[in-house]
Amino acid sequence: MSPDLSPDPAPVLCRYGWDASWAQLALAHLESGHVPGRVARVDRGRVDVHTEHGRLRAAPGREVPAVGDWVVLASSVVTAVLPRRTVLTRADASGRSEGQVLAANVDTVLIAVPAEVGSRPGRVERLLALAWESGATPVVVLTKVDGLEDSPAAVADLALAAPGAEVVAVSAVTGEGLDVVAAAAARGTTVLVGPSGAGKSTLANALLGEEVLAVGEVRARDGKGRHTTAHRELVALPSGGVLIDTPGLRAVGVRDAAEGIDRAFTDVVDLADACRFADCAHDHEPGCAVRAAVEAGELPARRWAAYRKLVREDEWAAARTDARLAAERRARWKSIAKAQRAAYRERGR
């Protein structure tokens, strides 16, 4: 059966974000028996894909897709991964130079922050850097605010670490803020990220209108919980839009995120632009607007330190990537040289 690639695509695929532009991209990869679909889950070397014929289980091809990718299938094998519009990536938790794709083709990143353990601005800033770098729009969601005495004050404190991003107070118990989050999630594809115990699955179930995803308890002493979401899962929201729920993130490393870091720290970048010297290192140079702002208490020293730490980490990751690429080139040329020497020996016999 040939897939419907007209400007008005199959209604089943439309539920997951399919449109005429995706159809146009898929045309180059489609042959008889090939069908397009969107990746709902990647687990143990297998891929679950939403297609117009239902949810299919397939094997990845040469390129392993991520949740949110649009792909083309043939005989239960992914034959092509369509070019991504956006991609949310963190540094690989193993410390390797490669990045780990958390979600592809997302429009909004909901960053869940549990209210009962404080805002933890450093973690929020890291997630904001990744979100801005991805090309999506971040929204910071302060969850479980029903346990706070002054949620507006908590939102104001959190907003200091999230310039340019909307910060919403939410309670799945009272319903506070759910309409705001639902409106944000209705705009295309939304990925929900945050630490374990942040209430991501509870929030996702509230948006879905039913208990679809498992939820768990958290420890009162540190607010940490078990990973009730064990894998990334893409589901269609009843009110429109698509949601990707993710497991709790313990480590949030940055990689190739220079622009995202600057977007997450616009206050610091604006101050740096006001320094007397364009190449100011913000250490001991005269006329340094950043250092002056820190000394005057206008820029929190913690925030300046957090910015510098992320920049150094991003530069370190870039250096590791360059070293890996150089090593791969050396290995490739060694292999070529070895093959040439073998060929010369054969000719000399």
TrEMBL record:
Residues 96-252 form the CP-type G domain. Zn(2+) binds at C275, C280, H282, C288. InterPro entries: G_CP_dom (IPR030378), P-loop_NTPase (IPR027417), Ribosome_biogen_GTPase_RsgA (IPR004881), RsgA_GTPase_dom (IPR010914). The keyword Zinc applies. Keywords: Cytoplasm, GTP-binding, Hydrolase, Metal-binding, Nucleotide-binding, Ribosome biogenesis, RNA-binding, rRNA-binding, Zinc. SUPFAM superfamilies: P-loop containing nucleoside triphosphate hydrolases. It is an enzyme of class 3 (hydrolase). The keyword Metal-binding applies. Its EC number is 3.6.1.-. Binds 1 zinc ion per subunit. One of several proteins that assist in the late maturation steps of the functional core of the 30S ribosomal subunit. Helps release RbfA from mature subunits. May play a role in the assembly of ribosomal proteins into the subunit. Circularly permuted GTPase that catalyzes slow GTP hydrolysis, GTPase activity is stimulated by the 30S ribosomal subunit. PANTHER family: SMALL RIBOSOMAL SUBUNIT BIOGENESIS GTPASE RSGA. Monomer. Associates with 30S ribosomal subunit, binds 16S rRNA. This is Small ribosomal subunit biogenesis GTPase RsgA.
